[in-house]
Amino acid sequence: MSSQQEPDNLPLRGEFERAGALYNKLETSDLPSSDTAYQADANGAIKSLERAAYLVRSLGVFSSNEILEDINTTDLRYLLTHAYLGELHLKRVTAPTDRLSVLHTAQHHFDQFLSTCEQHEIFSKEDKKYLEAQLAGGIKDLDKRREEKIARYKREKATKERLKDLHAQISHLTTTSTASETIDEELDRDIILTTIDLFIQKTIESLRMIKDEKEMLEKMQEMLKAQQHKQGGEDRDASTTVEAKHVRKTWDPRGPILDASGKPLKPFVLLNQREALRNQVFRPGHNLPTMTIEQYLDNQIAQGNFLQGGGERPEKPQVDDTDEAAVDAETVKAREWDEFRDANPRGWGNRMNKG
After folding, report:
1. With 0-12 CB in 10 A as exposed, 13-18 as middle and 19+ as buried, what is 214?
2. What are the Cα distances from residue 317, in Å, to 313, 332, 334?
């Protein structure tokens, strides 16, 4: 049997552990998500987890009337199956047209994971209330929203630190010979419950991101359909114009326009109402000018709205030296002007706008 068929024959524990190893490899990988090897590991983990989910259902691992204390530690880890599936589907790189389907699949697995946790009293009412608020649009108050984000970040950070410490304790106990099986099982159960709590927090955030991305993709699809519909209308208008140009030249002006089959018998004019409406819509909101500035000034001058006339300033008449009376008058006028300037020096009386 080939190695590619071996994972299909693994038991539940083997399928889950194989998928968990691939998931951890992807989380620590430096490869871009679009890399072929990265996508191959993601698809392989999804295949193993789908097989594991089938075995969980067929074997009846969980019962609807069980609470957390009734589930043994060995089976408790399988509650994470749908959480892993949701995270792995989000890591898939597909064509843009298939992205919406991927989001629907991931959302289904996340909902299944939270529903199972709530059924076994692991999903708290506070987390459920917070999730419902996020899916309804989030907290409106900006200060409360900021405080909630900070609290969520601190909680996730503390959960990761606790999980890291628990794994360190397990590693330490495995190197000693004094650890009992009871202690190992308690630590193992604590690790699984802490991991479930961490994935509950991740799932809440993933569901919020899925909601936002789905809304964006749906709007993009609506815009694309509207653009295609508009393009189709323009193509129909163009084809109608071409058909009108190829009508028969032999026609009776008093006869019908179309024959029994709908074929044009004489030329006719198609009024493109779409083009007329488009010209009315795509135009400036202000009135366009009807004349140039030069034309406007000429029009105003013709209406007499501009004063015209004037010319060069007349020259000052020269006083005849032989006219003693005129010379004396000019001398008196010059003296009076000098006296006025002496009595009123330049700048006198200027209050500098102080009143």
Report:
1. middle
2. 12, 17, 15
Widest CA span in the chain: 143
The residue type of 40 is A
Map the chain to HEC letters.
CCCCCHHHHCCHHHHHHHHHHHHHHHHCCCCCCCCHHHHHHHHHHHHHHHHHHHHHHHHCCCCCCCCHHHCCHHHHHHHHHHHHHHHHHHCCCCCHHHHHHHHHHHHHHHHHHHHHHHHCCCCCHHHHHHHHHHHCCCCCCHHHHHHHHHHHHHHHHHHHHHHHHHHHHHHHHHCCCCCCHHHHHHHHHHHHHHHHHHHHHHHHHHHHHHHHHHHHHHHHHHHHHHHHHHHHHHHHHHHHHHHHHCCCCCCCCCCCCECCCCCECCCCCCCCHHHHHHHHHCCCCCCCCCCCHHHHHHHHHHCCCCCCCCCCCCCCCCCCCCCHHHHHHHHHHHHHHHHHHHHCCCCCCCCCCCC
For residue 73, the cross-strand partners are none
Please check the confidence at residue 182 and state whether its pLDDT lies above 60.
no
d(CA 33, CA 26): 9
Query: How far apart are alpha carbons 112 and 93 in whole angstroms?
Result: 23
CA dist 196 and 117 (Å) reads 9
Side chain identity at residue 155, one-letter code: R
Among residues 67, 229, 201, the alpha carbon closest in space to that of 134 is found at 201
Q: How many CB atoms lie within 10 A of CB 285?
A: 4
Residue-wise pLDDT for 202-235, tens only, equals 999 999 999 988 888 888 888 888 888 777 666 6
Determine contact, residues 199/79, Cβ cutoff 8 Å: no
Q: What is the pLDDT of residues 249-259, one digit of tens each?
A: 455 566 676 77
pTM of the model: 0.60
The residue written with tokens 């919406």 in the block is 100
